[in-house]
Amino acid sequence: MSHQAPPAVATPPAPGSGQKDGRTAHRPLALRVLARPDVGVFLGAVAVYVFFLVAAPPVREAGAMANILYQSSTIGIMALPVALLMIGGEFDLSAGVAVVSSALTASMLSYQLTLNVWMGVVVALVVSLAIGAFNGWMVVKTGLPSFLVTLGTFLILQGVNLAVTKLVTGNVATDDISNMDGFDQARSVFASSFHIGGTEVKITIVWWLAFAAIATWVLLRTKYGNWIFAVGGNKESARAVGVPVTFTKISLFMLVGFGAWFVGMHQLFSFNTVQSGEGVGQELIYISAAVIGGCLLTGGAGSAIGPVFGAFMFGMVQQGIVYAGWNPDWFKAFLGVMLLGAVLINLWVQRTATRR
């Protein structure tokens, strides 16, 4: 009687043999770092900063850097809620004119009714939040793309800003409110400055960094942050696991309204008056800062730190061109190059980071 040998069994590789399957393979540290959405824009911000350090010697002075940070902060305060909204999968094309709408509301209400300016500030906040809530409610309830809904809001606000201002004041600008009760206190909150080592620093820089820290904490450490990523990635899947999609999206639009109110108050108490036709085109600056900061146009990915660097790049270019003595008409061309470059870099980073 013959005996057959048992079939050969493949011996698994010994631990430490260097052979790894797809499930246990670890990507190199460099690729894991590149996978972060804010790394590309950080490197870009460093490159732009070094470029203007060489091309524009005045940038090396503390006062020039304070001006650059100030310009960055006025963009960055709005870019933060716009970025959160984009992570949630939506756009807001009315963000630029909503800033002016808020400032006009506070100015005209206070001046025409001879109220303390804080009454105008509070009413402007309510109006700004209502505009955001309307945008969010329309998007959620109708299912229309936020691009179309907020484009309609943009046109409505643009027309209302001009028409109402002319009707109430007889001019395209509001009246000077610098002598009204409460102006100095409001100015200290929204448009004051302080000195560090003899250099004047605007308070908006502090607010900008504080809002960025809060937004980062919300995204990374709270349930609401998880909801934002979930609804931006796939709202139906998010709804299926219990995420309040309607609340999340409407609240994100209201956050944009809050940002518009804050920047509007800064503009009002910086210049004492408001031009009703301003704000057009600023929404593209805010969205571009978010995109350059690593927020995907498709939603579901991004950070709050990335738009900080994106806004800094905008402020750096805007002021760097002036300090270099170049024609400021080139500013928009630089922004276009930065935007296209950021999109291409983000695409390359994603493909590199996900490649085994």
Verbal overview:
- The chain is mostly helical and 356 residues long.
- The protein is 68% helix and 2% strand.
- It has a two-stranded antiparallel sheet with strand order 1-2.
- Strand 1 (193-196) and strand 2 (199-202) form a beta hairpin.
- The N and C termini lie far apart (53 Å).
- Residues 1-25 have low confidence and may be disordered.
Shape assignment: globular
Alpha-carbon Rg, integer: 25 Å
Our count of helices gives 14
For the secondary structure, the number of strands is: 2
Q: Indicate the structural class.
A: mainly alpha
| Arrangement of strands in the largest sheet | 1-2
Helix content: 55-70%
Give the SSE order as H and E letters. HHHHHHHEEHHHHHHH
Helices and strands, with pairings:
Elements: H1 29-34, H2 39-55, H3 62-87, H4 95-112, H5 117-142, H6 146-169, H7 183-190, E1 193-196, E2 199-202, H8 203-221, H9 223-233, H10 235-240, H11 245-271, H12 282-292, H13 305-323, H14 331-354
Antiparallel strand pairs: 1-2
Characteristic key phrases:
356 residues; mainly alpha; two-stranded antiparallel sheet; 2 strands; disordered N terminus
Summarize this, please?
With 356 residues, this protein is mostly helical. It has helices at 29-34, 39-55, 62-87, 95-112, 117-142, 146-169, 183-190, 203-221, 223-233, 235-240, 245-271, 282-292, 305-323, 331-354, and strands spanning 193-196, 199-202. The longest helix has 27 residues, at 245-271.
